[in-house]
Every structure is written in structure tokens, then in C-alpha cells.
Amino acid sequence: MLKLKLFGKLFFYAVLAIAVVEAFSYLAYFYPILNTIGFFLILLVALIFSLWKLEYGLFLILAELIIGSKGYLFSYEFSEISISIRLGLYLVVLGVWLIKLIKNKNIKFPLLGAYSLLFVFLAWGILRGVLNHNSFDNIFFDFNGWLFFGLVFAFVEALNSWEKAQKAFQVILAAALAMILKTVFILFIFSHQIDFLLNSLYRWVRLTGVGEITKMPNNFYRVFFQSHIFAIIIFFFLIVLIINVKKKEFAKRDYYLYWLVGLLSALVIFVSYSRSLWLGGLAGLLALYYGIFFVLKLSMKRVFVVSTGLLFSFAAVYLLTLAIIKFPWPSPSQFTGGLIEERTTDVTEEAGATSRFKLLTPLADKIKENVIIGSGFGTTITYQTDDPRFLSTHPDGKYTAYAFEWGYLDIWVKLGLAGLLVYLFLIYKIFRRGWIIFARFRENSIIQAIILGSLIGLFAIVIINFTTPYLNHPLGIGYLLLVTAILNMLEKNPSEINQLNEITSSLKNSESNKQQ
């Protein structure tokens, strides 16, 4: 059986490095000079790593996506423009890849045609925005997230072997664990009102764009990071591994770590108090059961065991959340009421939700102006908002924006129906290629689990994008590129992976014979 090593040395080194980076970023809140030092130091490390091995530059990008949310853990102020560490890493890795491209001009991969077609429409979106006289600043910042697609070639080239893919998984898992622990830490601090940390921690989280900390009417503190989307991805990735791979094939420590990280991922999804993430989690569960019944074709007995395990896990998540907020030290939480009712009742009356619904009509009107070809990047819409974050600067409630919560409608406005369909075609091609490659590894439960788990995570993002834009954001695009690269690696190297599988099985049989 092919071995999957997710908790190797690189995982622990990555956790340690991320802890240092997070601490340095927090200190930079008090000493701004550290922000500049950290920015250039990280870029220097990224440059050295990328020149040495391109995949290590990508590992830094993947880790930053997960711990950074909006990408501003560090930034550099230049001529009234704030350059994020994410943009800096993007330019470094892309630049190194372009240098390496001079030596190796082979950039072909199976999904190149679908990606190229999307690139044509992205270029059209920019041109259309210019022709419509949209503000240059709006065009740039609106298109900014889409720039991440430029890394698709670097992803495909760098993650071209099983060994490199395993290292990528370790870094992703390390960053996800760091993000999870940070969420739990913040929840504990605010639930128990630990005064000396409250103000600085809140302002640091907000200024770096990592997330939001909001006090709910029931005195529960909602901790939401945009990058919590990766908690959903990690949850389904690990759950499918646990379901599809026999327990004896795991190292004992790893098996329990899978359960622990999976449980903590579910905890983060829960305490995010994000209806969009909950919707994505529900969609992922439906996709999981589809996979269990029609793809993995588990017996009813096995389905019952899996369902029981999931129910106990969700109950444990609820109890663990209560334990964190009700822990008696250092001071008891003022939390009252239930954890779930707050986000499942009065959905249409909450300020954020009502603002989203009020945006629908202006969005529809703007789409009607250019249904097929779109209005281009930087297109703005003015709508009525009840969101208190905007009312302080817009007392009349009239708010003008170029980025919109309804993900697919946002794409439709900018790229038209034609551009939206091209993007959906790319996503369809990724799913289709995933199923084709899945069929080639019928005898390899680990590879099957990786493919199925990855596609379930992608399906969850596709559903979440209806109400929260991720597919036009580096977080969603980055995951799309990762799945593309992993599938490309598996398709190009089936013999290498099967050979590894055979070698491992032979060694296992040899050890068994010696024991006999």
C-alpha cells in the first residue's frame, strides 16, 4: 500500500515557522518597523527557496493563503499604496518561474486549453472596463485577485511528483492547524474577556485583514476568517482518507492525528458562525454521502459506522465549543442561550443578510445592461445597505462598490454570461478529469481518497460561491490551482505511483514472512 506521510518533519518545521511568523506579525502591530522588516525578510526567503526549488516558493504561497486570509499579515507602504505580502510572494514566485521557463519551455498540461480560454475572457474583462471608462484603481483592485491564475504554470511544474505533492500536503496541514489554533485562542480570549489582550488582538486581526471578531446578541464571540474555507477542505480530505483507507495502513499516531485535526476543522467551521461556510459544509456532506454510496460503494454496515462517527464528531464539536467558552478560568463567559439558534433564525432580518438581498436587484439591473459580454472589471453598483460597518461612513445607507457578495453574479457583471460559462466549463473539466484519473487507481485507496476528498472540497467551494465570492479570490483560485496540479501529477505519473505501491506492498509482505 502506498504510504501517505502528512505528519513528517516538514509538517512540524512548518508549524514552528508559522508560529514565529504570526508572533512577529503581532509584534509588528506595536512596532511598525517590524512590519517592513518582516515583509522583506519573507520575500528574501521566498526568493532563495524558489531559486533552489520552485516548490518551496509555492509552499510559502499556500501557507500564506491559509494563515493570511486577505494577505496582509505583513505589508509595505509605497507611495500611498499598501503592497501585501501575498502580492510580494506572487511576484517573486512568478518571476522565478519565468526565469526557469527560459530553460524549460514546456508548459503543456491537459487543462491548458480551458485555462487559456478563461485567460482570454479575463483580458476582455480588463479591456471592457477600460472601454467603459471605469476607474483605473477600481479595475486594478477588482482584477487583483484574478492575477493568482497566473501561477497555474508554476503549480503544475513545481508539484510534478508524488514526493513534492506529499510535502505540499504537509505544509497545507501545518498552516491549517495553525489557523485552527489561532481561531480557538482568539475565541477563548474574547469569551473570557482577558483584558490585556483584547484591544491589541482585535486591532491586529482587523488591520491585517485576517478576519472578524464580532460579539453576537447571545454574548458569543464569532471568530471568522476568510481562510476558514480551508477548514472545510481539510475536514473532507481527512474524513475521506479515514473512511477509504484501512486503519492498519496508517501509523497509529497519524491515524489519531487525522481524527484530531478533522475534529478541530469542524470546530472552526462551527465557531466561524458563517452561514455560507455552514452551507458549504452541508453541501460537502451531501457530496460525501454520494461518494460513499455510488463511488466507494460501501456496505450498509460501513455506512452506519461512518454516520455514527460523524454524529459523534459533530456532538463533540458542540460540546468542545461550549467547554471553550464556559471554561471557568480566568473568568466565566457571559454567554447565554444556544449556539445554533442565533444563526438559523431571523436570517432575513440581520443587517448583513438584508444588505445582500438588497444587492440582488441592482445586480440584476446591471447584468441586463450587458448580459453576454459583461461590463468589465471595476464596474460599480450603488445599493442600499444596513451593514453597520458601512453606515458609519455612509449615514444615508447608500453604498457604492465594485466587489459583490453574490459570487457568480459578480463574475457575470464583469465577464458576462460568456465569461461565467467559460469559468464553469473549466471547473467542470477539473471534476471530469478527476473522475477519469480516479478510475485509473482502483487498487490504490490512498490516491482514490486524495482525489475524492479534493473534489468534495472543490464542490463545497462551488456551492459557497453562490453567496460568498471565493472563486474570484486567491483563496478559491489557489485551491483550484492546487487540485489542477495534483491531478496533473497523478495523470502523468501513474506508473511511478503504482511502482511505489508495489514496492511498499513487497516490503510489507517480506516483513510479514520474516515474522512467520
UniProtKB/TrEMBL annotation:
<feature type="transmembrane region" description="Helical">
    <location>
        <begin position="303"/>
        <end position="325"/>
    </location>
</feature>
<feature type="transmembrane region" description="Helical">
    <location>
        <begin position="277"/>
        <end position="296"/>
    </location>
</feature>
<keyword id="KW-1133">Transmembrane helix</keyword>
<keyword id="KW-0472">Membrane</keyword>
<dbReference type="InterPro" id="IPR051533">
    <property type="entry name" value="WaaL-like"/>
</dbReference>
<dbReference type="GO" id="GO:0016020">
    <property type="term" value="C:membrane"/>
</dbReference>
<feature type="transmembrane region" description="Helical">
    <location>
        <begin position="81"/>
        <end position="102"/>
    </location>
</feature>
<feature type="transmembrane region" description="Helical">
    <location>
        <begin position="223"/>
        <end position="243"/>
    </location>
</feature>
<feature type="transmembrane region" description="Helical">
    <location>
        <begin position="443"/>
        <end position="464"/>
    </location>
</feature>
<feature type="transmembrane region" description="Helical">
    <location>
        <begin position="171"/>
        <end position="194"/>
    </location>
</feature>
<feature type="transmembrane region" description="Helical">
    <location>
        <begin position="255"/>
        <end position="271"/>
    </location>
</feature>
<feature type="transmembrane region" description="Helical">
    <location>
        <begin position="33"/>
        <end position="51"/>
    </location>
</feature>
<keyword id="KW-0812">Transmembrane</keyword>
<protein>
    <recommendedName>
        <fullName>O-antigen ligase domain-containing protein</fullName>
    </recommendedName>
</protein>
<feature type="transmembrane region" description="Helical">
    <location>
        <begin position="109"/>
        <end position="127"/>
    </location>
</feature>
<feature type="transmembrane region" description="Helical">
    <location>
        <begin position="411"/>
        <end position="431"/>
    </location>
</feature>
<feature type="transmembrane region" description="Helical">
    <location>
        <begin position="139"/>
        <end position="159"/>
    </location>
</feature>
